[in-house]
Design a protein that fits this description.
4-stranded antiparallel beta sheet, binds pyridoxal-5'-phosphate
Amino acid sequence: MNLSLDRHSDLPLYRQVAEQISNLIRSGVLSAGCRLPTVRQLAADHGLTRLTVQSGYAELQMQGLVESFVGRGTFVAKREKMIPPVAAAPGSALEQSPVEPTTWHNQSLLAELVLMTEQPDLLSFAQAIPDPATYPTRELRHALQSVLDQPDALSYGPIQGEKSLREQISRLLLERGIATSPDTLLVCSGAQQGIDVALRALAQPGEVILAEEPVYPGILELAATRGQRVVTIPMDQEGIQLTALEAACIAHHPRLLYTVPTFHNPTGLSLVAPRREALLSLARAYDLSIVEDDVYGMLSYEDQAPIPLKALDRTDTVIYITSFSKSLAPGLRLGTMVASPEQVRRLAAAKQSCDLICSPLLQRALALYLRRGHFAAHLQRVRTLYRERRDALVMALDRYLPGCSYTRPSGGLSVWVTLPEHLDESDFCRDALGRGVGVARGQAFFVRSQQRGYLRLSFGSHTPTQIQEGMRILGEVLYEQQRRRVLVLARAGLTTRPLV
Ligand SMILES: Cc1ncc(COP(=O)(O)O)c(C=O)c1O
């Protein structure tokens, strides 16, 4: 292996070794499974001490790029595929064991997503947001005006939430098959606060929380701030893998599983019906409470959306969370939790310590908007709109990004794309950004940093024409990256076969 080391550089030699091998791996010159030279051999070839080479290899191992096996040597790590390609045979579960407890280390990736929202000229597929053009401003204005005539709308209100809103939400949830009464509801400031409140009320600092992976990063942040450790369970095309979940229950004795079983973020996949029942049985057997995040549940493109776990729950195993952020307008910051009256009391105490109450003014305005029957028509409109956009995205992916595989969700706002094996998602996203297109890096949704090669494309706020244009540009980025790789290989006089 030829490394070009600069002994006068400020960069220590072991870091130079690590960086250059890392570049060879990321550019695909060294492919998965390829064996690196032994420490002794590389040290001798380059006049280095063994400690220098060992430190370089250790650095690569920490980055998840190589794996070392005693007696066998050091190998380029396989890029783990959490989600099998869409073409894979149905039901092909991946054999993966749950990872060890870990805290989240990808905060900068989330910050990157937030930064993209502040770039006005960017054609961004990075945020899973509804189209602002669909916000029902006229109806909400009327509702707000009416509510402002009630002076106590500007006072404090009940911690559990305005009764008028809880009554309306109870009616709405019946359409998701969930029978509730206002007593079993807690209004919260979006689903994010619902998760926060559940973690505060139902788990202790230091406890292990289970979640599927890829995972909604919001739970990772919340758990990390409470000193709770998230152990992730792999998914396949049919949702969370129950064998791995059971193994994690045995290993960690957790009390809570956080899951997004319907139109999951980031993959868009839904847990299949038989696994829903099996998940509930498993949770009962291991005394596990399930925090079901159904924030996309109302955005089904088909008449029949998957039935929420809560609708199947007869034993108060499920704490259900949803919000109006994706289905109506995220700026309302209103959502709800459904739990047993006893659980609601504990959740309400935790909610009180967060922010006392949600704005009574907005709650009453939303209640009035719902009571006036506007929401059903709104939902009908946006479901049709997002179905058209999903179709536009899928067609454009087929046309411009051949070689990638992707999910085809039947609801929600995002598609999960798997890049061709040799492409690095960081390089891809950087180049896409350079051409004015923002995408969410798959790594933001993994606890394990070595999970590379995925993108989340959120299409809710773009017209089919914009979607087509965005994918055309991403297609150019893909082409350019593949061309560069061929050049690198040709310059090195290599095919894609391992160097050493
Ligand atoms: C799965 C999931 N849960 C919760 C949230 C937060 O939702 P809210 O705006 O209602 O707090 C999001 C937002 O993207 C999400 O994707």
